[in-house]
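Quick note —
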Amino acid sequence: MKKLNLWLFLSLFVAAFTLTACGSDDDDNKPTDTNPLFGRWEAQQSFGASTNISYAFVIGADKKISYEYRMYSAGGGLHNGYILTGTYQVNGQTVTVNFTKFQRLTDDRETFEQNDQYVYTYKLENNKLYISGDDTNGKEFKNTEFVKK
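Predicted structure written out below.
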């Protein structure tokens, strides 16, 4: 009888530790994608009949960001384009972006490291993102409307 009680006690003891060791794999510190800023935001501008420019910001929950710039000529071909990647920080209605990588989409398709910082102000309204500040060409965004894709 003593052996049975000992085995029963050991079985319950092991079961208790085994069951408490199993838990949810969810990480409470993991960022969620519920922030309305997260996602891909696109905008377009036309300059006469000859030039169209498309912009896109891809904002991630992991504090990473990319900026895509594409300029199309009248024939529809890509005239100039690049992608910048880096990290961002939000403080109120201001986003500070540190771009660390430049990748050209035309000509020699070069990629190189850089260290450029840009500060944008933003507002979200009716599922649209409005951005003001300098773009990477020194051309200013003036309340430019971006749509989530």
